[in-house]
Each structure stands twice: as structure tokens, then as C-alpha cells.
Queue: 3 jobs
Job 1
Amino acid sequence: MPCQLLFIVDHDMTLVDTLGVFYRTYRDACLLKAGRMVGIREFLEGFCSDSLREPPGVDALDFWSYFKDSYRARGRDDLRPMPGARRLLEELRRRGHAVVVVSGRGRPEVIERELAMVGLGDLVESVHTVGGRGFGKADIFRRLAEAAGLPCVAVGDYKMDLASAVEAGCLPVGVTAGCKDPESHRRAGASVVVGSPGGLVPLLGLVEERACSRG
């Protein structure tokens, strides 16, 4: 029987499809802070390559603080679960693992509200956010794993999520979210790469074996 694990799962584009909200928020931030309109094609190029940046000449702290504070769904129509998200969370619960959500956004209550909107809130034990300017999660991952006293698995679509998992000693699992490069995820440290949360379900035995063997 595998050991009990702590699964630390990203919110945006890992559990919940918020791509439209993401684009709207980034576009509006660029327009407000730099007077520059960003089209959907340019946005998707940056999103899919994990290379979105603040506009040239704009203060990064101001830009990303505004972005994080503004990034939220207006209503249920803005959101949908990623394919197989509920199935994955239900299977993790069935196997006795702990599940928390960690987001690069600023306010846990916003994430909790969105999870509830798509019917996933009841399957998550707690929600944590990075806040501030950065998106690195290593400190949060490490703190949560130490508090739980469990080996950890970190699941995310963003290369920084995977790098944070490596730094914190968690097993990194990459999600391509429809357009990310699997090889890029592997180079960032992903032990397993799947297209969607549902794609992880048949690989959970492998993930458990790898994570438990790490202690």
C-alpha cells in the first residue's frame, strides 16, 4: 500500500480553466499601465511558452500587483473545470491523500470562490496564495509539506510551479493545459507530464511509487 502523500495542486489552468479571465486581466493591465493593447494571439504565444512579461518601461511590482488583485472571475460563465479535475480530486481522496491548492494569485478567498463555482471546493482541504509580486511557490510548498509531515507532489501547468517543486523537494507533475510543451516541462523538472488533470488518474500508481520512494 502506498504511503500517504500531500498533493499540492495549482488552480489556474490546472484545476480550473480560467484562460479567458487570464487574458482579460493581462490585456487590461497592459492597457492601463502602458497604454498598449495585447491581442489574443500575442497573449497565447506568451501563455503557452510561459513567457508573459510586464510591458517594457513599466514597473514590475506595480504591474503584477495590479494583475493579481484584478485576476478574478466575474461569474460562473467565466469558468469551467479542467478536463477530469473532479475525477482526479475524488480519486486522490479515495486513496487517502491530502489535497491543497496553491495559487500565484493574491487572495485565497477569490480562489475558494472560484473552486466553489465549478463544484470542486468540497474536495480541497485548504487554499493558499503567493501574494505580492512574485510567482515562486517553493517556500509555501516546503511549509505545507512540513506542516503535514508528508512527502509532497506538486501539480501545475507553469514552469515556475515545477521549478518550485524541485526546490522544495516535492515530486513535480506537469500539466500541458492544451498548449504547453511537454519537453519544456520535463526540462523544468517534471517527473510526469499529462495533458489534463484527468490524464493523471491512470498514472497515480507511478506517481505514488516515485513520491513515496523519495521519503
Note: The radius of gyration is 17 Å.
Job 2
Amino acid sequence: MKHERISVDPNVMGGKACITGTRVPVHILLGHLASGASAAEVLAGYPFLSPDDLQAAIAYAAYLVEHEGIVAA
């Protein structure tokens, strides 16, 4: 998936998907949401991010889940 708000750079955070131009990994934002934080609470903790950045993180995760391989049991 190519998204202007998500970048993967081996020189930034070990190559983890991050919000472009930051060192904030997508998985950190998703973890906050999964733990019950609201979007407003997450954004309050990262005031340099926009609602569109948070939405891009969610869309990125949805894309990965949709395209994950099927593992036979």
C-alpha cells in the first residue's frame, strides 16, 4: 500500500511504518486506540499529528489485514 501519510524507511524506527515526517509508528497509534483511547485523546498526546494522520494509520492496518496471507492450521 502506498499512502502519502505512511512511510517505511529502514533508517527511521527500524523500518516500522510511521506517520510520514515523524518517528511515530503506526502500531503505537493503533495500540492507543485498541486500549480504549478516543481519537481526540490520541491526537492530544501527539499534537503535531492531524486527524487525517490517524485515519491513515487505521486505513494502513485495514489494508494489511485484508492482504495478510492465510495460514493453514
Note: The helical segments are 26-34, 39-45, 51-66.
Job 3
Amino acid sequence: MKYSLLVSALLLSTTFNAFADNAKTLTVKEEIVINAPVEKVWEKVSHFNDLGAWHPAVKKTEIIKGENNKVGAERLLTLQDDGTIKEKLLSYNSKGKTFKYTIIEGVLPVSNYVSSVTVKATGDNTSTVIWKGDFKRKDLSATPAEGQDDANAVKVITSVYQGGLENLKKITE
């Protein structure tokens, strides 16, 4: 009896892991050229505690743990529709004008999400902002629920990045 329970548990575990493997890692990378000096653009995006300063979907950003721009800081984003996303800062390099963060929990249809924002000088008065994320869909099962598939996850993240970058360009140029 004990042996059959152990075998059943192992089979169940293996089956779950097989389903989790069905969800592949997805990547979205969006870039935008902004006609403004790199310092001006970095000043706008560099504050982990204020994504709402440049992303129109964010109504409010608050640091709920740690200190702004310090690794380990956690922020809570309240979206315009009152949905929330909790994120954690993984790395921050002001000299390199880049930071990396992860989503801890939230309304987006993704899991295992890690993203970076980088600002690069591409001329005296021109900058390029690169927003790149790797993630899996939220529903890791072999047959995800409607709206929880890979295509929808990519579509939503692409939309988030494009909306933020387009507004950043608009308010910074």
C-alpha cells in the first residue's frame, strides 16, 4: 500500500512537471528612439517608485518594501482600472542606465516574468530605450484556459511595452 502511494505521488509529480514544461519561455523586446539626451530620458524612467511618471496605464506606484532604486525594493502598481501588480527590483545600475525587475504577483497573464529597461545614447541628443522581458504564460497547463495562452501573453506584454515607450517619447521629446 505504501509503495503504491509513493508510485502514485511520483507519477502525479512527473505529470505536473510535464505540463509545466509545455509552457515555454517567451520573450518580448521593444525599442524606441527618442530625440532627447540620454540623461533626460534616464531621469524619467530611472525611478522604480514612479512608473506612473511615464506609463499611462499606471495610476499609482508605491514602494511597499525596501528603498527606491535599491535591489530588493518592492513596488505595488495600481493600474488605471484598479488592478494591481507587485514587482521586485533585481538589479539597478545608474551608471549603465539599466535596471531589472520581476513580477511577484499581479493581473497580467504571465508568470516567471523578468524584465529589464535600458537607456542608451545613440547620438548627442538621441536615446534608445530598450524594454525586454522573458516570461511564461500564467496558465502553465498543457491546455491553457481561454485568453491564457502564449499568444495572449505576448500580445499583452507587447502592448504594455509599446504603450509605455510611446508615451515616454511623447513626454520626453
Note: Strands lie at 26-34, 58-65, 74-79, 84-93, 98-106, 110-123, 126-137.
